[in-house]
């Protein structure tokens, strides 16, 4: 997500975003073991993964293998019927398990075709199958519900509004950080990845799009069309994109024949074309530094909204129209930022929300590096300014790798985290830094990785123990000296 400023909406929907802590559940049912074999008794899966930022996000006891989402879209701001089919594998013997599911009207839940018991508390949907699920068992959960595309929540940081974001003739979605649960029941944590099949039925004059590849488009009764997309690769729920509207699909190719598909509201095709056509150049520039693009396709979804920030939804970045209607320098900063996330944050996912600095810091680092070479401000000057403010940011927003939940998407995770990478490059040299970067996106491609993983990898690649250097930058209360810049001064925090 980019926080480079664009025009903001005049009046924000101040909807309550507090997640209600799940009510205490009854203890596990006892099940007798057969014979003398001491098999694990079925017990409840954890209602959350214990993330320091959002303890109840994600769920324990199972792994999602695939989501299949069926949406019968009707009209803007109009509820519609939806079904989520979740194919999963039990990682423990389960007496019950949870899904993250906020709002929406629940109709029924089945497990392997049999009606299951349900209970809801806040964003937790507890599912009790008719029979316990043994460890290692594959199972299928089907949830039918009425989806409410007016659901929006609000944060007092760079995210602002998230969830369903309305457009004049449809919607886009902004699920970061944990708004996917407003769209479908999920294991909603960035470390939990699974492929998704989207089947979206719309009136014939509208187009539906989603992450990945269009695999089928078929006519249905009542002048309706069903659009089927396959994400192709697993993705985190915070990176889901699903949009409906009067769109033009602009298809072309990038470096090495990579398919590029932009999704553009009809009236914005020509006004945004000049900057959108720079994507191939951005891909080539980043591949020079980071290696091959990690997915099968890429593109930009132009949001006909007054949304203030862009989002790196996997293979189809959401970019507000304002980002593409200003100066080229400003547009390219945002475009390169979201594209960089396809390596950092999308391909290499976050193990916990405290690792956000790795994702946003890298996106800001390469955004500023590119901008400096293409008419933008000096990268060094921007880092010197960030260094000056760093102690204050540490006090106000937490150290780069030690955020608090209200300050998760504040300035420290952007320029403040890019500064950590700048300091590392100054410390080890540019050649060694480039080796670290390539090793990171190669070794952890398609996986979730942590701050400690980054520190350990940097140490291995350079052959020197970098923990003593990086930990004060990432966790310390005071900003360390900047290597190579003894004249740089930090303003005291007030």
From TrEMBL:
GO terms for cellular component: cytoplasm; extracellular space; membrane
Domain Aminopeptidase N-like N-terminal: 66-238
Superkingdom assignment: Bacteria
GO biological process entries: peptide catabolic process; proteolysis
Membrane-spanning ranges: none
Segments forming a coiled coil: none
Keyword Transmembrane helix in record: no
EC number(s) given by UniProt: 3.4.11.2
Domain Peptidase M1 membrane alanine aminopeptidase: 281-473
UniProt signal peptide: 1-32
Obligatory cofactor(s): Zn(2+)
Catalytic activity: Release of an N-terminal amino acid, Xaa-|-Yaa- from a peptide, amide or arylamide. Xaa is preferably Ala, but may be most amino acids including Pro (slow action). When a terminal hydrophobic residue is followed by a prolyl residue, the two may be released as an intact Xaa-Pro dipeptide
Keywords linked to the UniProt accession: Aminopeptidase, Hydrolase, Metal-binding, Metalloprotease, Protease, Signal, Zinc
Molecular-function GO terms, alphabetical: alanyl aminopeptidase activity; metalloaminopeptidase activity; peptide binding; zinc ion binding
Chain spans, region Disordered: 32-51
First-tier enzyme category under EC: hydrolase
Family: Belongs to the peptidase M1 family.
This protein's name: Aminopeptidase N
